[in-house]
Amino acid sequence: MPSFSPAIAYRLEAARAVVHDAARLAMSMRPAAGGPVGTQKAAQDWLTETDGAVEAFIAERMTALFPEDGFQGEEGGMAREGQLRWVVDPIDGTSNYARGRNRWCVSLGLLEGDTPVAGVIEAPALREVYTALLGHGAFLNGKRIQASPVKDPASAMIEMGWSNRVPKAVFIEKIDAIMSLGAMPRSGGSGALALADVACGRLDGYIEIVINLWDVAAALPLLAEAGACVSPFLHTGGLTGPATILAANPHIAQTLSEAVAIPLK
């Protein structure tokens, strides 16, 4: 595990300011409530003008601040490689954003090699900012957060992300396994915010069969610092392509893992 350095802490503070400005830009461009505004890359996979604008804004600012760092975006791919790499999802929850809904965020994570070391997630319509620095805690609006204490799956709330890349039978199988535990299923349309909800205890678990690095990069240090258990996403293909993730509070993680057949190791 990389050790803490002032350089990483400085980068987190800079990232928080850049993400805040990017979130303001996204809010200024947000469509009014109603039918979706944007285009579809695939079924239910939305792209808006804001996605490109926000990613370009963050890329320009972070490149100016840290030209030696790598940079990877959902829309632009791997722009630069580096031992330190920024990974951005300009609008996570675009399907919500495109309809003028509130559950979406700007997400920026920092990896050192293959270790997530810092992350910022801002959901401006919800007035929430999550930050985490490896070894120094996870926070929501400046207050320390931790995973839920729920131990009984029958009292748990579990979210499962939906993707058109997952066969319907697989999705139904996993949802059925969640419900068979007695847990309450949910689906909110933003992987980054769902993982943040696990970190702060609003959810007891989250699974998604196919999800990308930019969706989770900022949330992974949140989860680690909040005491959640997470499947080895980065080591099962997540560094280079889509992979499966499970995150849960430590009390139900093993039970959930066995129920949905997603290993924690």
From TrEMBL:
The lineage of its organism: Bacteria, Pseudomonadati, Pseudomonadota, Alphaproteobacteria, Acetobacterales. The keyword Flavoprotein does not apply. It comes from the Bacteria. This is Myo-inositol-1(Or 4)-monophosphatase. The keyword Cytoplasm does not apply. Its cofactor is Mg(2+). Belongs to the inositol monophosphatase superfamily. GO terms for molecular function: inositol monophosphate 1-phosphatase activity; metal ion binding. Keywords: Hydrolase, Magnesium, Metal-binding. Mg(2+) binds at residues 74, 89, 91-92, 215. GO terms for biological process: inositol metabolic process; phosphatidylinositol phosphate biosynthetic process; signal transduction.
